Amino acid sequence: MTSAVSLISAALLLLALALFTFLLMAAIVFNFKAGIRYRKALARQLENFRLSKMLTALGIDIDEYLSTERVVDIHTHMQRCGACENVGECDERLAGGKLTDDDIGFCNNEESLQQIARARATGKPTGG
Known about the structure:
The chain has 128 residues and is mostly helical. It has 6 helices and no strands.
């Protein structure tokens, strides 16, 4: 009798563990896919700002930027870009093509973009 109860208890525990493992894996896959969808939507939003052209001009890969920078920082960059009053100079500089991080003193995101460009050049993460 005790053996049967122990066996049933072990089977129920194993079943609960299997269910937990399955649900955990399903949650991870769901969150991963949700993250991809969110980053794609963020990329579409980024296209509406000069910031995307600025990143390209600085040699910063937009996909890498979207996957390595914190979302809150990306939103801050977009807000600063949208509030910029230097659009004429920005458009003029961006029309010239490639920029270096020393050429963006007019940009509201100057400090952040310099950190990202320099971190990219050294292979170190920016850490937000």
